[in-house]
Amino acid sequence: GNSVTQMEGPVTLSEEAFLTINCTYTATGYPSLFWYVQYPGEGLQLLLKATKADDKGSNKGFEATYRKETTSFHLEKGSVQVSDSAVYFCALSDRGANNLFFGTGTRLTVIP
Amino acid sequence: GAGVSQTPSNKVTEKGKYVELRCDPISGHTALYWYRQSLGQGPEFLIYFQGTGAADDSGLPNDRFFAVRPEGSVSTLKIQRTERGDSAVYLCASSLGVATGEQYFGPGTRLTVT
Question: How near does any CA of chain B get to the CA of A94, in Å?
Fold first, then answer.
């Protein structure tokens, strides 16, 4: 079946620190992979995506590379800001499926 | 343009009562999804509509849950004989087409069953 396992939080970093949030997946086919972000008081927003192996998704300084050999899609950012404080969800959509499978979410707090 | 809207934003009901949750998707989006998010968890898929029809309702937990989208736009999630375990945030999302994965989420309805 399909499932996503992501690093448990919460994660607290100082401003300008390097961020990694780990995500691994299990899928029956060849999924598309996503990172969604939920800022305080707001709905889920797509942050970035990758649709095939070795693709790199990027947005707002965040990056994640689709690694088929390790079934991973780790989220990274070189220098976090206070405004990056949010809950981050890794998700997959299996080819031909109509829904997203989400991880449990990782809460990131960036302190000045 | 306007995003996905959901009403009400909060709903408190007594165990055993009936509730309806409404979702208004982005104009022109043919696909509509309902998810349920329990505290500390990621969203879990409930049902997917393509146009007016429920193309996949495999995530509905039992027959107390039902959803409609009669005109292919607004959708209503209906829960009968609510139980305390139904307490969660119910999320609606829409997208342009089938299985693109780029779903746009509403702010959710927080349902509390007392």
Answer: 9
Beta-carbon count within 10 A of A74 CB: 18
**Is there a contact between A34 and B99 if contact means CB atoms under 8 Å apart?**
no
Residue B98: predicted pLDDT: 62
Mean pLDDT of the A64-85 span: 97
Q: How many CB atoms lie within 10 A of CB A100?
A: 28
* Closest chain B C-alpha to A45 CA, distance in angstroms: 7
**Cβ contacts of B42 on chain A, cutoff 8 Å:** 4, 89, 91, 102-105
Which structure tokens are listed for A28?
A: 């029956």
CA distances from A4 to A72, A83, B35, B57, B114 (A): 9, 26, 16, 21, 32
pLDDT score at A65 = 98
